[in-house]
Specification:
Rossmann fold; disordered C terminus; Arc Repressor Mutant, subunit A; 2 domains; alpha/beta; two-stranded antiparallel sheet; globular
């Protein structure tokens, strides 16, 4: 069981503070919990939430020393963080622990000097303020999260879910991460490079069939799916489908299909003993060469190299 320490820097956002517990405690490995989560703070007791009510945090920063991963969620105090917190984070990083932030928690990591010279992200609405305060950090405000090895940063609140699922996937593989997502009733693992938000507002129509169309496509990822076929299922024209699909997801139908095929391929590589040819067919890439090209371009690894790096179950299923 891996240990997670969530460091509350008041005033905290209750959603962000509780989110890691919800996500990590949904990860089950071999019928057993994959994580133990401890919420801690510099001065245990009643802390402000900034949401009209106070919270009680019973654990002190000694939980950081005992953890494998340390997470700093969003805080309304982006400057002058308690030096004990900053020192605990520096010690954690120096000892090789994984350190992460959610939303404005990136300001705390930056104050501790853990983001200097690194690429990081935070909520897009805080980007300019962050750049002014920490010019030594290469900020990318357009992504869901950034994985810089031992230091990770997530964007606004909901993107913290994606970051937590990414950490679960890194620790235990895609099958466990997707199972945790289902248990928490959230979107399965998304890539960190996905946009934080969609400029185009959601269409005002209700009862759109696009959700059903996407679910249908996921059930048929093992074969070619054309734009015309998607449009027929949604009972709209290809042009209308593309416009509405992009408004709802932020990507075109073909880009979305490619993302889902890559998700499927990665999960199969991690959790089964299928050959690369079999994985390519079952994820809709058709051939091993097509799968290799797409994985090299979008993941940075060949299927074989990815399996070697991320497999969590013996081959041979």
């Amino acid at each position: 069981m891996l240990k997670i320490a969530v460091v509350a820097v008041p005033p905290v956002k209750p959603f962000d503070l509780s989110m890691p517990s919800t996500m990590f405690e949904s990860a089950v490995v071999g019928g057993e919990p994959g994580y133990a989560v401890t919420v801690c703070t510099a001065e245990p007791g009643v802390i402000a939430s900034g949401a009209g009510f106070d919270l009680v945090v019973r654990n002190g920063l000694e939980a950081v020393a005992e953890a494998d991963t340390v997470i700093v969620p969003s805080t309304g105090s982006r400057y002058g963080t308690d030096e004990h917190v900053l020192e605990a984070l520096r010690d954690a990083a120096a000892s090789g622990k994984r350190v992460a932030s959610i939303c404005s928690g990136a300001f705390v990591l930056a104050q501790a000097g853990l983001l200097d010279g690194r690429t990081a992200t935070t909520h897009w609405g805080l980007a300019e303020e962050f750049r002014r305060a920490h010019p030594g950090v290469d900020l990318d405000p357009d992504v869901l999260f950034v994985d810089e090895g031992p230091v990770l940063t997530g964007a606004g609140s909901a993107a913290g879910i994606d970051l937590c699922l990414h950490l679960i996937r890194t620790d235990y593989g895609a099958a466990v991460a997707n199972s945790a997502a289902r248990a928490a009733v959230v979107t399965p693992v998304r890539q960190g490079g996905q946009a934080q938000f969609v400029e185009t507002p959601l269409p005002p129509e209700t009862g759109s069939p696009l959700g059903e169309t996407r679910a249908w496509a996921l059930r048929h990822l093992d074969r070619a799916i054309s734009l015309e076929e998607l449009a027929r299922h949604a009972k709209v024209s290809p042009r209308t489908l593309t416009r509405r699909f992009t408004a709802e997801t932020g990507v075109t139908p073909f880009q979305w299909l490619l993302q889902q095929r890559l998700h499927r391929a990665r999960e199969l590589l991690e959790s089964t003993g299928f050959t690369v040819d079999q994985v390519a067919r079952r994820s809709g890439f058709g051939t091993a060469e097509s799968l290799r090209q797409h994985m090299a371009r979008h993941v940075g690894l060949t299927p074989s190299a990815y399996r070697s790096a991320f497999t969590r179950t013996p081959a041979g299923r």
